[in-house]
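Section 5.1 Outputs to date
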Amino acid sequence: MSRPTIFIDGEHGTTGLEIRQRLDALPRYEVKSIAEAHRKDRQARRDMMAAVDLAILCLPDDAAKEAAAMADEMGTEAPKLLDASTAHRVAKGWVYGFPELTDRQAALIAGAMRVSNPGCYPTGAIALIRPLVDAGIIPADHPISINAVSGYSGGGKAMIEQYESGQGPSFDLYGLSLNHKHLPETQLYAGLITRPIFVPSVGNYRQGMLVSVPLHLDTLPGKPQVADLEAALAKRYRGSTWVKVIESPLSEARKDRIDAEPLNHTNMLELRVYGSEQYRQAVLVARLDNLGKGASGAAVQNLELMLGA
C-alpha cells in the first residue's frame, strides 16, 4: 500500500522545518518538496498540491489565503489542507485543529478537508479556560486576563536572528495595544463572550511556553474551591495522550514556581491549578513547547488524524 503523501508549502520557515524534521522520523509518510528555485512558482506549487494527499501551509497569512484560493480552483484535484498560519483559525469551512477541545473535535478533524492549526498561546489558554466554561465554573461573560511568556523562536526568523546575535532584550512585554492576532481564536474557542485581556511576553531563551490565568474564586458562581477547578480539568482530559493535568502541583519539588522549558521537543501540554483557599485565589497554568504542541507537534497530530493514522 502506498504511503500518504504530504507537501509542506513554506518548508523553509521555522514551523515548516520543525514539521519536516518530525515527519522525517515517521517513515509511514512521504514528504514531497519543490526545488528551491521553484518554491515561489505558483504553477509548481499547484502541480505539487495536485500530486499529494495533504498540503501544510506554513506561510504568512496573505500567502496562506492565496494557497487556499488556489486549492478552491482545483476542485476534486485539491488535497486536504492544514493551515499553520493565523489566516483561517476563525474562518467558516475550516475545522479548528485542537483535538482535545471537545469530545467530538478529533472526529471533526479526521473528517475535514481543511483544518486550521491553533496558535501557541491559544492552545494553552483554551485548554485551561474552555473546560471551566463548559462546566459552568467560569461564566462566558466573566472578565478574564491571560498572561504568557514564550521563547523567542515563536517570533519567527527575524526574532530568532535578533536574539541569537545577542541583540534581543532579556525580557520583552508586548501586545500592549490589546489587539494581538491570537485573541479572536482564543475568545471563540475558549467559549468566552467577553473579550479577554491578553498580555504576551518573550524571554531570552529559545523555546518553551507558560500561559497563566489568574482568578478570584469568590467572583465566580458558587464560589468554587481550588479543587473544583482541578477536578473539572482532570475530567475533561482524562485519558488524553497529549494533555495532562498535574494534580496538587504545590506538592511538587519546586512547589510555588514552574520552569517553561521541560516539555521542549515534545507534543505534551501540562495543566496545573495553583491556589490558596485562605486568600480565595487561583492561578491556572499551562506549560508547552511553543514549537511542539504550540505549532509543529500539533500539526503532525492533526495530519495523522486527517490521514487516518
